[in-house]
Amino acid sequence: MDDYSPPSPGRLRALFLALAACMALLSGLLGTGDAHAEYGDVVINNYSDAAGMRPVVFPHWFHRIRYRCKVCHADLGFKFKAGGNEINMVKVIDGQFCGACHNGEVAWSVENCNMCHSGKQGTATQVHESTVNSLVQPKGSKP
């Protein structure tokens, strides 16, 4: 008979943290490519142009696959209208809207601006209605 004993809770936590760190590193390396706007993505540009930033391209269906509508639209208060929310970086950093999950614990935090601010300058707030990736800032071009 084996003398197997399950790992201690401390050892399990250490393994989990090491795995999470590896996953974060891998996602950072893989996430450096071009962003793509797809059908149903939401462009958020209520304040970006005025702040000299590219607009946010929010991958709605990517999030919808993982979460029920109520998580964002009821629990976090997102209105069902593109442009209907007063989202700004102060609120996000304060844990409101996107910042409820994008806090460095549930999902990446706000340090890498280009992960979200990937749209072409001047693109109006809208729901992207085609699969033509014409909303994305070409790689290497300046905002």
Written overview of the protein:
This protein is mainly alpha-helical. It has a domain at 35-127: Cytochrome C3. It has four helices and three strands. It has helices at 9-30, 60-66, 69-75, 89-93; strands at 42-44, 56-58, 126-127. Strands 2-1-3 form a three-stranded antiparallel sheet, with no helix packed on it.
Classify the beta-strand content into a percent band. Answer: 5-15%
Please identify the oligomeric state.
single chain
Largest sheet properties: 3 strands, antiparallel
Net shape: elongated
Mean pLDDT: 80
Read across the widest sheet, the strand sequence of neighbours is: 2-1-3
Question: What class, by secondary structure content?
Answer: mainly alpha
- What is the CATH superfamily classification of the domain at 35-127? Cytochrome C3
Number of helices: 4
